[in-house]
Amino acid sequence: MKNQFNEEQELAPVEQEGLQQRGVALVGKFSDQARQRILSGLSSQKDLAAERLDTLRQSVRRAADGMTEQAPQLAVDYMGRAADRLDKLTEYVSNTDVEDMMKGAETYVRRHPGVVLGGALMAGLLMARLLKSAKE
Question: How many CA atoms lie within 13 A of 75 on its CB side?
Answer without folding.
Answer: 9
